[in-house]
């Protein structure tokens, strides 16, 4: 799953997106964040409307379509294996896809003395582009969920699932609202090579959302 991540190198994120998708993005006026939690605004790239230019702005991390009522769930993740056919996600999968940039994410490894958090990122420290879906919510705000897939490479050492991080060639087609055929998407969009992933243990201070500073991503010794 992906329930916590970090986004702190904002200039590199904007530079990466500009190199891949071209010019036209306003500078992001957001602070670096080392402990991003669900139920908050997150930075994302998406088309607010099908014919609108690509935007780089904020989505609420919590997915609940306008038509969902009562005690309908508000998931933060969606398994990529079922989003194309799920009643909850299929409309967004067809036309409301987005990208959530991250410098890395956190997973917890179960040890005899409790769960040990690890920070997972690219070994070259380039931004990760996490595949997401967005929807119009009843409160008028756009909300999103991050897609997950079975864990691969170094990530599989920590958890059985991981966020779906895309390779550079997949970013433009993933964001294209005109590309709605799921078979074409399946053959066009590819996840990041797992050889690029690495991880290290970090302080359990990250367990508390209020601890949002560079120290929570620093490696520690365990055992």
Automatic annotation (TrEMBL):
The keyword Aminoacyl-tRNA synthetase does not apply. Pfam families: SRAP (PF02586). It is an enzyme of class 3 (hydrolase). Residues 204-223 are annotated as: Disordered. Keywords: Covalent protein-DNA linkage, DNA damage, DNA-binding, Hydrolase, Lyase, Protease. Belongs to the SOS response-associated peptidase family. This is Abasic site processing protein. The lineage of its organism: Bacteria, Pseudomonadati, Pseudomonadota, Gammaproteobacteria, Oceanospirillales.
């Amino acid at each position: 799953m992906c329930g916590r991540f970090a986004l702190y190198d904002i200039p590199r994120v904007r530079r990466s997106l500009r190199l891949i998708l071209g010019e036209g993005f306003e500078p992001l006026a957001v602070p670096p964040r080392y402990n991003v939690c669900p139920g908050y605004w997150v930075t994302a790239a998406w088309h607010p409307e099908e014919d609108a230019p690509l935007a780089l702005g904020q989505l609420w991390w919590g997915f609940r379509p306008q038509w969902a009522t009562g005690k309908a769930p508000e998931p933060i993740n969606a398994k990529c294996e079922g989003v194309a056919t799920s009643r909850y996600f299929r409309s967004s999968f067809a036309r409301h896809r987005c990208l959530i940039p991250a410098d890395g994410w956190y997973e917890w490894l179960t040890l005899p003395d409790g769960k040990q958090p690890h920070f997972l990122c690219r070994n070259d420290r380039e931004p990760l582009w996490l595949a997401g879906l967005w929807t119009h919510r009843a409160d008028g705000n756009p909300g999103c969920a991050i897609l997950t897939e079975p864990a691969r490479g170094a990530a599989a050492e920590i958890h059985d699932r991981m966020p779906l991080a895309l390779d550079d060639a997949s970013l433009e087609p993933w964001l294209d609202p005109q590309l709605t055929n799921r078979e074409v998407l399946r053959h066009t969009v590819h996840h990041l090579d797992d050889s690029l992933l690495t991880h290290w243990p970090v302080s359990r201070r990250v367990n508390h959302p209020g601890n949002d500073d560079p120290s929570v991503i620093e490696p520690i010794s365990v055992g």
